[in-house]
Amino acid sequence: MAKTATKKPASESGEKTARKPNAAFMKPLQPSKELGEVVGSDPLPRSEVVSKIWEYIKKNNLQNPENKREILSDDKLEPVFGKKKVTMFEMNKLLAAHLK
């Protein structure tokens, strides 16, 4: 008796399938006036906003040297974050309030 081969789904057979970009992350959003001071006033995708914030943080040496997970706000970031010190984990939540 001959066995017929059945095709397994890509996830079971170990084949890689191309991931589709999530349209919600790629949609350009308008930054608030405060956030615009740091990333520019043009609409940007959320991922690009986060990248520009990290560029700004590193360029201005705003990571806490004792705890790299903490970001120390300067005069431009404090209106965005609302406090002097935030963790990188709260940063995305705080940025969401400044994107429409």
From TrEMBL:
Transmembrane segments: none
Region (Disordered): 1-27
Biased composition (Basic and acidic residues): 9-18
Record-annotated DM2 domain positions: 24-100
Pfam families listed in its UniProt record: SWIB (PF02201)
Alphabetized InterPro entries for the sequence: SWIB_domain, SWIB_MDM2_dom_sf, SWIB_MDM2_domain
Protein name: SWIB/MDM2 domain-containing protein
